[in-house]
Amino acid sequence: MDFFISSLPQCLMNGLTRGSIYALIAIGFTIIYNSTDILNFAQGEFAMLGGLIAISLASSFHLPLWAAVPGAVAAGVLIGALFEAVTIHPLKSPTVINLIIITIGGSIFFKGAAMLIWGKDSHPLRAFTGTEPIHLGSAAVTPQSLWVWGATLAAVIVLHQFFSRTITGKALRACAHNRTASSLMGINVRWMVLITFALSGGLGALAGVIITPLIFANYQVGTLIGLKGFCAAILGGMGSIYGAVLGGLLIGVLETLFGTHVSSGYMDAFAFVVMLLMLFVRPRGLLGEAAGERA
Amino acid sequence: MRGPKGRGMKKDYVALAAITALVCGLPLFVSNIYYLSVLTIIAIHIILALGLNLVMGYAGQISLGHAAFYGIGAYMSLILTSPRHELTAWLGEFSWMPEFAVAAAGAFQHFTAQHMIAAAAFAAAFTGALALIVGIPTLKLKGHYLAMATLGLGIIIQIVFIEEIALTGGPTGLSVPYFRILGRDLDPNTLSYYYAVWLVVIALTLLAIHLVHSRLGRALRAIRADETAAAASGVPVMRMKLMVFSISAMYASVAGTLYAHYITHVNPSPFGFMFSVKLVTMVVVGGMGSIWGALLGVGLLDVLPQFLTVFEDYEMLIFGAVLIIVMMTAPRGLAGLLDAAWRRAAGERK
Question: Hey, what domains does chain A have and what are their CATH numbers?
Answer without folding.
Answer: 12-121+139-221 (1.10.3470.10)
